[in-house]
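$ fold --in a.seq
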Amino acid sequence: MRDMNATRTIPLVERWIICIPGYLQRRGSSRAAIPALHRELAFAHAGPTCWVEMFPWHSDWRDVAEWIVQSSAPRPRIDVFAYSWGVGFGFLRLAKYLRRHDIEIQNAVLCDGVAHVGPGFAGLHTLSKLLAFLPAWEIVIPDNVRAVYPLRQEQTRLRGHAMRCADPNATRLAPFVLDPHRGHTEMDESPSFLGLCKAIAKYGRPTPADLRRPVDGPRLETLGDRAGSGPPGPARPPSENGTRCDNSPQPPNGGT
């Protein structure tokens, strides 16, 4: 008879791929792009030492960070793909608490990130809803994040806030990618965002093709796999701090 008390070695996690959706997006939101992206990445990459997780933007990030620390091998690789308040609250809090354990985030793809002062009190949450429409806010990237790839749109009044690095020597902040075809509520469906996430999940970094291919196609309905019925909207020229691009995964130079 098998000894049920025998201990089994459970491998420690060496890599995390973490998706953080925006306001009102849940695991059961079948048509939301972040939950669908999470399912696709989990199918392609999840394994005993690579965990693909999705957490709501208002999660208990201190607890999440502690769980990552307890489950991981030394110096795990962590990539974060976040959208809206998943950037301005979830990603920032996760990075903050991981920093206390000297754990780094290697790559962060941040889509139309909107700042948030904290959901712990109803008044602060209401204030964040009002201030989200003001462009004066700024998202400061913690110094334990190695590379950031931000995306934003300028079609709607609610749009991603400016970003800067707490330590420019520690963090590489890529130029903003501008999507001229979507408003804020559709930005997580952008092929630029989805392509960057898939490329980093597969190759560990974006390729030059991911960062420079222009977005000239029509708006897509979901996950970049169904074309919209209407013609593409007028493309806006890139601003001085932005680049318009369509990031579909490409093999690294010399790869197949």
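$ fold --in b.seq
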Amino acid sequence: MRIARPLLTIFLALALIGAVSPAAAGGLTTTRTAEARITYYAQHVYGGRLTNAQAAFARFERWLAKNPFAERRTYSFTRDVLEDSMLEEQGFVDTAYGFGYGACGAPSLLNQLVHTARFIDSDGTEKPLFEVRRWTRERNPTYGPFGAAIYVDPTGKRASDYRWRINPAYDGATPKIEISFQMTGDKSAEVLMTVTYTDEIGLPDGEPATKAKPTRKITPPQGLFGGELKNADNPDAAAPQKGDQPPADEESSK
């Protein structure tokens, strides 16, 4: 006897459901979002700072749209995002402190996000989504302890840069970063950066993730590491003091 087509469809659907692994059926991977935010207050904004910040964020946004993150690849903000160039036609302007000053807002907010985003690994342990590979500190009240200096120099003599990568332990969906830059006044703005990714295991309701042991302690820097004579966003910042050193797992160029 021939089986009616609607009934056959039901049988096939049930068979496919039965073939799904218990892990997939249980929905063990869950989407997660982390965010970082900086606020530009008028008293900390000099002429051209927000223009250069917007230009850097715009370059980063365009780069993200064309370059999905790859495993075990270290990314450089100056080399990959800015392509070693900061030009007027790219939206950057001169300021009282130098051309392009203020552009380090983008790597600084990225650095905050890198230190914020965490995922639950398949072993139930919470781990950082990203890893810092190089961080030239930038002392600035706008960025707090996450200030990251960059300096584009074709000669290579000034190598201030920010470099990061995805944690090799992460096996979830490709992280997606989005940026929102909102002017809140003539000399004030707020920038939000979010990353969407997945936990590798969904824990039962009410069961907390096992906290991983911290690999670094983030404290406000006491000086500009890799210091030029003037701080890119805070020209009056103090020079590095003897004994100031970045955490052991982070690099600093001089």
